[in-house]
Each structure stands twice: as structure tokens, then as C-alpha cells.
Amino acid sequence: LQLLSELSPEHFIIRPNKGMDTAALDECIKNIPSYEYYIVLHDDHWFSHDDWFEQLLVLMQMDTSTAAYGNLVTSCPYNSPEFEVFFDIVTTAIGYEDYHIADFPHYLQGMAGIFRKSAIERLLRQDGVPHTHGNHKKIVEVCERMLSYVLLRDGAVLKQLPPGYELFLRHRQHNISVTNTASP
Questions:
Q1: Strand 106-108 with 68-70, pairing
Q2: Which helix (H) or strand (E) holds 85?
Q3: Residue 147, Cβ neighbours under 10 Å: how many?
Q4: Were 91 and a residue from 96, 106, 120, 131 both cysteine, which residue would form a disulfide, CB within 3.0 to 4.6 Å?
Q5: Which of left, alpha, beta for 164 (phi over 0: left; psi -120 to 50: alpha)?
Q6: Which residues, 6+ apart, have CB-to-CB distance to 79 below 8 Å?
Q7: CA angle (42, 16, 92) in 5-degree steps
Q8: What phi-psi label fits residue 162: left (phi over 0), alpha (psi between -120 and 50 degrees) or beta?
Q9: pLDDT tens string 97-108
Q10: 172: phi > 0 → left, psi -120 to 50 → alpha, else beta; which?
């Protein structure tokens, strides 16, 4: 907290660590002023270019039909009937009983990417980001997908960041090039 206070952030929200990323994003969009664009990242995301911010702004300005850009994942990449059943149980329990994985082609991985103001407004009209007040990781995965599904159901267009999946907005260590690793 001391390090962050030295940075003098424009907004700094402290909340209990319940509901993980989905609850934190919900709290954020409900308590900060309205902006033209929002960038949502996790602490293990990074960009492959130093001018990433400028590239995202140009992308959003060129393609005004898109509500959000991020890394798109097919809705059930594991082709797991068990996860689909779990998804239906969780969504029913949190009040989204008419949402089913098969109805949606894709979702934004980890809710990460750049969002237009209109996308955030769509979420707020639907009561914000779906979340629970617990930290069960699989339930949070369902809620992360639900952010995209709520937007898609409302007519929003979500697109893959060019040049492709995790080539610009990278996640964790699984896509660092060989040239960045030490030789044995």
C-alpha cells in the first residue's frame, strides 16, 4: 500500500479479497468515473510492444463497431461436458439460468483487453460483472466467461487482438519466445 500511495493513483479502491477478479472488476466499474476506454489486465499479462497503449487506441479508433478487443477463446475449449454441466449449475445459482455455453462462440480470456465505454455501460445496465463473494476458482472461471456472454447477448461485438491469440496481449510465461530464455 505504501508503494502504491507513492504513485499517487487517480483511483485506488481497497476492498476485501472476495470474489477474485470478477468481483474486483465489478467494484471498479461501479465506483470510478466514466472513461472513453478501459483496459482490463491481470498481474500476469504483458504486451509484446512498448507502444502497446497507442496501438490499442488506434485499433479502437479505426474499428468503432467493436465493443472490446482481447484474446478470444472458444466457449468450451476443453470440449468438457462436465464443465458445461457445472457452468449451468453456477449460472442458475447466480441468476443467469438462461445462459448456456453452446449459445456463445467465444469469450475474452480472463476478461482482459480494451473495452469501449459502451461495453462498460452495457455491463452496468445488466447489474455489472457477474460474480460471487467467494474465491472458488472454477466458479470465478464461469463468471469471467459470463462477462463476455452478457455483452454478446446484448449485441456487443468482441474481437481478437491482432496479430492473433496471445501474440500482442500475452499471458503468464507460456508465450515468451525462445530468444528470451537462457540456453542450457
A1: unpaired
A2: helix 81-93
A3: 27
A4: 96
A5: left
A6: none
A7: 75
A8: beta
A9: 999 998 999 999
A10: left
